Task: structure prediction
Amino acid sequence: MDQTSSSFVGFAGLASKNKEATKMKAKRRKKISGADLAFRICNGIFMVLFVIITLYPVLNTLAVSLNDGTDALRGGIYLFPRVFTWKNYETVLSKDNLITGAFITVARTVIGTLLALVMNAILAFIVSRKNFIFAKPVSLFWVITMYVNGGLIPTFLLFKSLGLTNSFAVYVIPGMVSAFNMLVIRTYMRGIPDSLEESAQLDGAGYTTIFLKIISPLCKPVYATVALFVAVGQWNSWFDAMLYNRMASQYTTLQYELMKLLSSVSNQSSSAEAMKNAGEGSVTPTSVRAAATIITMLPIICIYPFLQRYFVTGLTLGGVKE
Amino acid sequence: MKTKAINMVDLKRQKVLIFWAAAITIYGIIFNYLPLAGWLMAFQNYKPVTGLLHSQFVGLAKFKLLFSDVSFLRVIRNTLAMGVINLAVTFFMAILFAILLNEMASKGGKKVVQTISYLPHFLSWIIVTGILHDALSGTGIINTLLLHFGAVTQPINFFAHEKYFWPIVAFANVWKETGWNAIIYLAAITSIDPSLYEAAAIDGAGRWAKIKHVTLPGIKPTIMILLLMNVGNVLNAGFEIQYLLGNGLVQNVSQTIDIYVLKWGISQGDYSIGTAAGIFKSVVAIVLIVICNHLAKKHGEERLF
Amino acid sequence: MKKKMVSALLLTSMLASMFSGCGKAQASGGAVNEDGIKEFTAFFAVPGSEINDDNEIQQIIAEKTGCKVKETWLTGQTAEEAVGTLIAGGEYPDFIEGGNGSKQLYEAGALVALDDYIDKYPNIKEYFTEQEWDQLRQSDGHIYWIPQFSNIYGQERACTHNDEAFWIQARVLEWAGYPKVETMDEYFDLIEAYNEANPTMADGTTTNIPYTILCDDWRYFCLENAPEFLDGYPNDGSCIVDPDTLKVIDYNTTDTAVKYFKKLNEEYKKGIVDPESFTQTYDEYIAKISSGRVLGMIDQWWDFAYTGEDAIKSAGLDEQGCQYVPLPITIEKGMKNQWHNSGGVLNVSSGLAITTSCKDVEGALQFVNDLLDQDIHDLRFWGVEGEDYLVGDDGLYYRTPEMRKQAADTAYKAAHTCSYSYFPQYSGTSRDGKNAMKSDGQEQEFFDGLSEPIKKCFEAYGAKTYVEMLGTSEKPGPWYPMYTYSNTLTTDTPGGTAWTKMGEIKHQYLPKVVMADDFEKGWDEYMKAYNECKPEDFISEMQTELERRMEEAAKYE
Result:
């Protein structure tokens, strides 16, 4: 927090210079609240516009998902369905293996998020210790991983030889440590005053205790953020299921099933045979995609408020400050 | 003398740290570094049949092929341009949004706005570009408004002119990701000691002064880290959105490295070209972050390593 | 320490397998399940519909043949990527259709040579002629895959013209009193005249779009390949073959090409060509077609029929004559047109193959053989009698409107229908000599589904089907079609590189040519860029292939 504090000291100095203007204070305060009001109004307008612009695509998707697929081909659906139907949802929900997929997806989201959170937090803790002798090389080691990639085939071969193909582990083991998430946590941890660690050390606490009892409780907001990132990634991913568990249908995921459904009604094919198979129905790729998107979004919308309290209400660190 | 003694003590105390660091490093070597053996492909005429060991070795031929092609140089330009524009615009918007959201008085409003703002993140590009295409078409909302206010006399065909393409891509990125990107900054804002705001208020700081002297410095480390990380990503300007929004008329400015690789590599069964382009991107990224990290260090800012 | 040991072990084993290229193939299928049914696996490197595990017709077929195949399809990858990963892993499903990756599979030695087996299975043997089987031989002289489509049994039963044509709405022809339209000029004159007299649709407010061009990504064939048809040549795809001199001609630079694009340029300036043509996406194009506003366009039937035409019908616009009929248009009057060719097209570049991972090759082939039995074939493409179709007193199959609707339902298809759509199959006439092999070839079925304006239009031109609107041409020669070769070109050869570059340049310049203020200048710029791609490299490789094919064919005369 030293940077914040020093900048603030600068500001305080600046403010004290202006102290001769105290006689104007009453007037100024009034003026400020006038400006404040203007700001609030402007901010309010900005937020309303922002909400309209960002909500529109979602509402549009919802409307399309509730509209007859063939009818929707004509376009011109904005906020409300024109020919209302549940057909798209029925089509999506009647997909074979959807239950298995949903179960695996929930499992990988929960397990994957926990594992990733623990590993990233430990790593972030290690490299954020100021006097840890290997902090720099370890950071560098992970930073590089963000920008290098061996490609599809070598990765496939690696996973295969580790026995990760046709298994659940392939969802949660490979992506466990991510430099991005680690750095986000590390930045946050560095903001926590060193004095906390020092005083705990004087009390004889080891690093494990410091990590579990001192640092982690303060990192809830950033843990929540990273958990959200990992969970959303886990929830949405399907490529790994396709690549590594294609033949192991007991490990299929929700998103993979939805992708298969989507490509089965897809018209993005260059073959007349595939077009013929896809066509002739009242559902279309667009309508099925819309329904699948809404179905995918729902659980996230439901869970979000529980995470949200960690970063909207301004969890206070005040009590533990130096 | 003293430092050495401390180091010995440290080493002993840091045993647990060293153990975990080692374990996680081994994990990283296996999952993140071992597959890099695949980089050999870039120097071979790789075929899955012959594998990495027995494919014909061609040296730098694939790189020469790439860099002797004028259109590859053009896609580098496009990728770089879109990468930089997107980075600047999405970065600015996310920070602005996070700060303004934080300034909202109503707690409930704050929650609602934030929830809505991140929703577009879950829409796929194909949905977003479809809606964008609709809005920008001859009879779409944008042209209707422009005509209504007399800004133009003829509807603008936005997708037929090269000059509109990069701004459209930037806008689409902002539209889809601002709310999502802001989450990190909102989390960072929570770490700011509320007593700093109180102190500022006592000193008579207005809203702007508080933002400038408390909020911004408070999230500065986060901003710096994200900026450094994303600088390395400027050559990953994307694939899907350009692919979905582009057309023959604007292909000179719309094609990115990833599209080029798909066209000339993967869809031709040539893995080596794609790997070579990937190595090029990695090298550029690492050079960029090393430079920027050095600059950050010089200015005493938060850095990556 | 223990951890390190484990890691080290993992590391070595992984390195070992990584560097060995294709690993040891593991047997994957042909296992018999508890019901005594052999289960095979299949992967098709094309997008397709997965059916439910407890699919009803699949179960019936399993009981009759003793075999069942679990099919998986390409999802979110290119065929080459998917096949590349399989080869790297060295593990395959029992059946595979490699799509564009077929050649890779062959080179990897992943496929079982079928020639020794074919004679043992009468249905498979019968599926192709000796000459056709020979065409399928790879460079090592063996046959590895069986193309599944366009194989006609008995008499051909084509009702729809599946390929490319100039299409026009029935209402335009009706308004003009069903005139004879033979040239591109006449076609555009008619559209212009109609649009002037009726600038809107029947509702009086929606304006017509006289002519639109789909130009989205690979679908730009709607813009680019008309010159070959306008010159009276069939769909050889990437080039024209002169049947007399047996020379490959580049249709991009012919006089007809200049005339065609000049005409489009003129019509664009007149406002007849939709100004959004070159920026619209496929979805937007289909939205326009579906709204009934578009009077005419070039396209292939399947590209708009199962989307746009369906939407026209569901909106009731078919009764206003908004559906499309094809016109036999050439550049000059009195030329022979070859928009529609009879007979199947043998696409030798890919097909159903059996992999080296299959433990029971004979069982697998027996299953392929059984699928071609008439009763199984009927189950695949008609369904269950009484449920999916009825049999009339004359022995002809027919479907009630409810059955037709049900057959199109995605969920019903997944739960009930099982066509094993990428296994060998026939079109044409059933072995009973009456019914069509597939429901879409049944004339009565087809005719019942037509709207009044289309029936009226067909009558006026003395036609009963779409095909008769155009007339049918015989297959032009043993080389046909050349696109089966150009599709396999890669940038490994100069011709393939030229081919890819030509595509890029055409994507970029053809719209500019059509939109140009000064056509001649626009065309010259296009030609300059085009010639830099070295199209002659491409043409000469096509010529070589043409000669090879002629030589092969000569062996059977």
User: Anything to note?
Assistant: Residues 102-235 of chain A form a domain with the MetI-like fold fold (CATH 1.10.3720.10). Residues 1-28, 313-322 of chain A have pLDDT under 50 and may be disordered. Residues 60 and 78 of chain A are 5 Å apart (CA to CA). Chain A is about 70% helix and 0% strand.
